[in-house]
Amino acid sequence: MSALLSVDQLGVEFAVNRNVMQAVSDISFSIQAGEIVCLVGESGSGKSVTSKAIMRLIEHENGTITSGTIKLGDVDVTTLPQQELRSLRGKRIAMVFQEPMAAFDPVFTIGSQITETIRRHDRRITAREAEEEAARLLQRVGIPEPKLRLKQYPGELSGGMLQRAMIAMALSGKPELLIADEPTTALDVTIQAQILQLLHELRSEFNMSILLITHDLGVAAEMADRIIVMYAGQIVEESAAVDLFTQPRHPYTLGLLRSITTLDSDRSQPLYAIPGSIPGMNNLPSGCRFHPRCAYATELCTREAPALEEKGGRQSACWYADQLPELRDTGVSELVSGVEVRERPVLDEDNSKQEAVSLIELRHVTKHYPLKSSFLSRDRKWIQAVDDVSFTIRKGETFGLVGESGSGKSTLGRLLLHLEKPTSGTVLFENQDLGTLSGSMLRQQRKDMQMIFQDPHGSVDPRWKVGDIIGEPFAVHGGRKGKEKRESVETLLRLVGLDPKAYDRYPHEFSGGQRQRIGIARAIALGPKFLLADEAVSALDVSVQAQIINLLQELRKQLDLTMLFIGHGLHVVRYVSDRIGVMYLGKLIEIAPSEQLFRHPAHPYTRALVASIPVPDPLRQHSFQAIEGEIPSPANPPSGCRFRTRCPAATVRCAAEEPQFREVGQEHFVACHDPYF
């Protein structure tokens, strides 16, 4: 049977600063009609370059296809002139990008952009018919009130709704092949489940092929018929999803699988992480490109590059592919490169109330933001970002905070550090009310309260050297200068696993994981007592994520740190946290010890969050448990229980009466009239 898409020995180069960089080389694969194929690998492996080459979009980024062919059916895409390419894009092949806000023009309505795409591919259709078709597409992808949404601008839609709108626009030309480039990376686990469920339904409904690019192997396990693993611009393995997860035939694939944090990960052991990082395309090693990071590498691997060979219906590029099953059984402990396995201190749930001392306490903390209203309006509306939240964080513990975007997690974190003042309520740090401190006293207090940001790119000044970035706290709070400052910064660099020579280099010379280490070094420079990690690993690849989590766990023990860990990757939050709080629409709705929360969630929302987590095992696939609908507006929250509009167990009482936050088990609190207990 002829393939819908055939890529044969594809090579792509980019012109960078008058030099030529080979981004991908000898890429060959095919996709059949109605098939879902996943491209996986770390950032820098060439996944997105391959997808953009298929669409011939790389030419807008100084890229050139230097070898090979790309065929869509009988059409050779590599030789098509631009005019014919424009008619091909959207009509036969369409793309869903990672950042929907960047894909839509913010100054035009959603409707105008979708109808423009529809009319471009069908000149006979009228404007009215195109608008009706756009509304039908929005309804098909699960967007409520589609005619209203057509009149809205991209900035007025949530991330999940905007991603759905982009899928609707991609479907407007009825494409045979849909390329989805990390379509769920920036989304909450619940919205991710909705998008994945939608893609599955569209595949079945239209017999549409999907090329899904992701670094989340849980997503790949849920979605893929076949998986292609890329590393440093080349394919290193390809096989059916079940075969790849049960018997990987390349050490890199095995490393990726072992790096996954799951709900079964042993919290007393460090996570497995592939040592090192993916090489730059201008500094590739000789022989097998993976050999500097491979636990099984031999002298042959350093000298000669293995070819991608087919055996038993699957492909792999490893000299020892046939021996890998035996090597794999030697045990993961032999592969945890240099990570010392220690028992992790966990609070004793039976007596933690009596023995633990609170470092931070929040008492009825509320933060409301005023909404702009018209001159004639008498009623002033407020965004209820955080509403009457109370809890404590004990010395030495990691408190996790989860919930969808818009639930108030990050706002609560800023209130906790007093980067924003509460509308009402009190924040205590070591029994000191932060609201009573003067500006200078609060600045002194912040030496003990530091933050690790989500974006390792945006959280550092690109014009400063690493030494100045990490050493800035010394300048702000006085103290070390000159030689003493340099020695302190170099000590911090060693502590976070970086070469002290990085002192004189710039942030752009480092990978995302290394930049996050720089941010961590800066955060611990003054020896704080408390760290706030706001989505600190959500933007990182699975192996780099494991490295950073292990680092945070080690620093917590070495420096006796207390942490608030905010995240939407629930499996990661479970692993690092002693207790976890769940937020929904500004309210804290459940708190429990980590294992208790995941094994016996009491609130329907928490149960839905846990059920939405993709399982990284094709043999244990579960049906998507997506929460229906979107999180309501914090400017107009529902009466009673705020989750009732999406809760399958809601009753009349839920609409009339707000549930009280009460204890239902040892250290287990929930705000629900009828908890699952």
TrEMBL record:
GO MF entries: ATP binding; ATP hydrolysis activity
SMART domains, sorted: AAA
Mode of membrane association: Peripheral membrane protein
GO BP annotation list: peptide transport
Main location: membrane
Signal sequence, start to end: none
Record localization: Cell membrane
Keywords: ATP-binding, Cell membrane, Membrane, Nucleotide-binding, Transport
Start and end residues of each ABC transporter domain: 7-257, 360-610
One GO cellular component term noted in the UniProt record for this chain: plasma membrane
Ranges annotated as spanning the membrane: none
The keyword ATP-binding appears for this protein: yes
Family (UniProt): Belongs to the ABC transporter superfamily.
Protein name: Dipeptide ABC transporter ATP-binding protein
Organism for this UniProt entry: Paenibacillus silvestris
